[in-house]
Design goal:
Blueprint (H helix, E strand, L loop, with lengths): L1 H11 L11 H9 L2 H12 L4 H8 L3 H13 L3 E5 L7 E5 L1 H4 L2 H14 L8 E5 L24 E5 L11 H5 L4 E2 L19
Antiparallel strand pairs: 1-2, 3-4, 4-5
């Protein structure tokens, strides 16, 4: 009986689509309204391009990661290209459409820093690369009075990583200043395995 209640609740309350909602926010949630999807896009803006680098940095189950990457490619936020250095593998790159998500993703990150960080200090600061001005909560450079393209944003680490800090190649690459969308990790290592795509 508990299983039946759980299935009913999942099917009737926790819907995964919003097709009956005539709302732009609901339509956006159809594409990006899931935890792993937003974290994948965050890492893609950091410059992560290979499946195994996403996997190492996110700790997402392989099947979930594969499905979310495929959905992001299908939605036009990422493009999947053959990896010239590793036959049979792919690189994922943020498209022009995907770049338009940057200010919203940054604003959500800032909100989390201000409202959900449990008094933890920020680990990174994002600056307009051409002038060095930190971005405001809406991803805007106050000095230049523009919202810079992600390629014109540099992420700078704040402080020294604490005990137990991540040591995967992406985390290590983010320990020094880095422009968004510049490939991370800097020294690419051949991936072990990548799921096949239809």
């Amino acid at each position: 009986m508990d299983l039946l209640r759980s299935l009913w609740f999942h099917c009737n309350v926790l819907r995964s689509t919003y097709e009956n909602q005539d709302c732009s926010l609901a339509r956006a949630l159809e594409i990006i309204g899931e935890r792993w999807t937003l974290l994948i896009m965050r890492d893609a803006f950091y410059g992560v391009r290979r499946f195994n680098d996403f996997f190492a940095h996110l700790d997402a189950p392989r099947s979930v990661l594969s499905g979310r990457l495929t959905a992001l490619v299908g939605a036009g936020l990422l493009v999947r290209r053959p990896d010239p250095d590793h036959g049979g593998r792919h690189l994922y790159e943020v498209t022009d459409k995907g770049k338009t998500l940057w200010p919203a993703l940054y604003a959500l990150r800032t909100w989390g820093e201000q409202q959900a960080a449990d008094d933890r200090e920020p680990r990174r600061v994002f600056k307009h690369a051409c002038c060095g001005e930190p971005l405001d909560p809406t991803a805007r450079c106050g000095r230049c009075e523009v919202v810079p393209d992600p390629t014109d944003v540099a992420v700078h680490p704040v402080g020294v990583p604490g005990e137990g800090a991540r040591t995967d190649p992406v985390a290590m690459g983010l320990r020094k200043p880095h422009r968004l969308l510049t490939p991370l990790p800097e020294t690419d290592v051949a991936p072990e395995t990548e799921p096949a795509f239809a």
